[in-house]
Structure formats: C-alpha cells, structure tokens
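Example 3.2
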Amino acid sequence: MLSPIIAVLFIILVAWMLLNEYYPHAVLLLAGLAMLVTAKALGIGPTEAESATGFYPFDLFQLVRESFGKTNMGVGLMIMAIGGFVAYIEHIGASKALVELAMKPLALLRNYPQLTAVAVIPISQMLFVAIPSAAGLSLLLMASIFPILLNLGVSRLSAVSVITASTAIGLGPASAMTVRAAEIIKVPAVDYFVQEQIPLVLPLSLVLAICYYFVNRHFDRRLSQDTSGRKESESTKEPKKAPAIYALIPVLPILLLILFSDLSKLFDPPIKLETTTAMFISLFVALLFELVRYKNLKQVLASLKLFWNGMGNIFKTVVTLIIAADIFSQGLIELGLIRGLLELSNSIGLNAIGIGIVMTLMIFAAAMLMGSGNAAFFAFGPLIPNIAAKFGVNSAYLILPMNFAASMGRTVSPVAGVLIATAEIAQVSTLQIVRRNLIPLLTALVIMLIYHFI
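Structure, written as tokens:
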C-alpha cells in the first residue's frame, strides 16, 4: 500500500517542478533514479541492469547507459532521422511549397473570415502528417497563412489559435509519438496510423472546427481585436522560396511507407520499408532536386550538414527526453504504480474503460504542466502493455486516446514551445491563446473519450 502512494507523491513533486519551469529532462531522470533507489530500500524487487556490475549504485547508471543504447539503436535513430529530414526540407523551401499548395483552397472562402479560419485546421492537420514538427509547422503557417488570414478580416487571436490547433492531434507515421506508440504496442507505425489513428481523428477534426468557429466568434465579439495586419516580428526568418514541385518532397516518406507496407498488395513477394530508411531515401531525392535546381555539387553536398544538425537538435531535445522518461516510467513501475492502479480500479469497480479514461486524463494534465506532449506520453506510455494484459484488452485500445491527449494537452499549455513561438510572432500573450484553445480542446477530449470508449 505504501509504495503506490510514494509513486503518486513523486508524480506530484515532478508536476510541481515542471510547472515551475525546472528542466524536464533532468527532473524526469532524477525522479526515476530516486524512485528506483526508494524501491530498493523498500525491498520490492528493483529493476536490475541487463549487465549488472555487482554494485547497485553503479547498476543505476548502467540502466541509464542501456536505455541510451536501446533508444539510439531503435526509436531514437528513427526520430532523429525524421528531425533531420524536417530541418532539411524547411531549409530548401519544400515545406513552404507544400503549405502554399495546400492553402490555395482557402481562397474560395475569402468572403467568410471565420469559416476561412477554421478551414485552416483540417488542411494543416494533413500537413502535420508530412511535417511532424509542431513548432516547425506552426511557424511556417505563421509566416505564410497568418498574414493572409489578417488581410481577410480574421482577428489576430483567432488566426493564431487555429494555427496552433493544427498541431493539436499528433498523428502520422513520421510523428515521434506515433513512432513511440507503435513501438510500445509492437506494430508498424504506418499500420497504427492507418488502422487506429485515422478513424478516430476524422470526427475529432470536425469537432475542433465547429468548436473553434463558435469560440472564436464569441471572443471576437467580446473583445475588440486588432485586424490591421501588422507584420511579423523582424526576428522571423522568411522561408526559402522553392519550385512548386518541391511540395512532393515532404509527403514522399508517407507515400513510400504506405506503398511499401502490408497495406499495399502491389508487390509479390511484398516489399517492406521501415520509417528511418524511408527518411534517408527521401533525403537523397531532395538532394537530387537541389542538384538539378542549382547545378552546384559542392553547394548541394554542403547543405547535407543541415540534416545532421537537425538530427543533433532532435537528439538533445526529444531523444534524451525519451531516455529520461524511460527511467521515470521504470521507477513508477518498480514503486507499484500499475499494481496500485489495478487494485484501485478493482476496489471501485473500474474496468479497462475506466483505467483508460484515467490514464488519458493524466497524460492530458501532464502535457499541460510540462508543455510537452512527448514528455507526458513517453513517461506514461510504456505502462500500457502491462495494464492492457491485466485487463485482457488490446494495447492499442488504451494507448490511442493517450497518444492524442498528449498533443491536445500541449496545445493548451502556456509553457509549450509552439504557443510561445507563435504568440511572439502574433504579438499576443500565450494565456490569450490558451483561453481560445481550452474549450475546443477540452470538448474534443471529452468527445474522444465517449466516442472511443463508450
């Protein structure tokens, strides 16, 4: 009875520290190690390193080393390849070309500003599948779509709110959370995307569009917004202009993964492609595009450093966060959080649906506090297979709403990087954006829980 209570106290302490802007990587790592030490002190069978040193304090750091090795050889490399590819296509202007092409249908709604604003959501959600960086896509939309929305009569806060809403549902085989979820439940990322995510995201997108229409209209009527179309801050760098054909490059990994997977019956024997490989193939296609465009081999080869820099940036932010969250989740497991949740659910009559709802709400709240959907999901996601096994349900059934709740929670966090960056460009406060986002995202969360579990 004592150890699950201690685990909850650790969660409360971690939440307080994250809310007070402590560095999340360090907080999660140190909290995980502290929980493992506590579990050892309580004598409840702590995790041991695969290659134990024979001295428990050293074994703790051996666990960290093993987590680094396991992550970097698997999901870490995949996510770094995605991050490098996103950085490269943004540098060559391919991301901007895709955004400009996708946003052309908005011209049809020129006379209906509020409808134009909410139309950004489903269109840019499709872009999010190909450009799986919340901050990256949002900044591209701020540079390209935000001024257009202002000129069409959309208020500044309405425009920035729908742009941040575009990344509220993290999906697609190139998304870090999708990759992690697929790894946890041991299915290919593209199968998880097509078979699990798409059926749920369609009704949620409709709910978001409807809610944002009425919420923004309500706030715009209450507050007099400046719609004069002030320019973005001078610190915003204009993305490079690229030929329209470059719009193909960001979606190429998605096309390759779908074409060469179990979903496609075009090849006999079947040809299967893994996400990391698809990213490297797409990178070299992008290099060929650049070579044809500039006809300067030295310049094109030099541009490859943007890819490596992108991989490095993802390592120091996302991959290290995965490792810290892995140690944190091991600490929660050793202190009996799963056992405590199961015993609590049994004592109050909760079934798999009840525990799924509780875990989803926990991740939503954690993402709000952390300002990171990845941190919340990577910390609690690994707990799901054991919980699902206890209740005899499919892991995907429990992990899917948690996946979406993590990105929803990030979108209503005033400390989230995507909100801070877009607020600075729009010259508004993050709290103003949170007020616009809170009702639609809470509504979508409730609808998702009802639609998925009931």
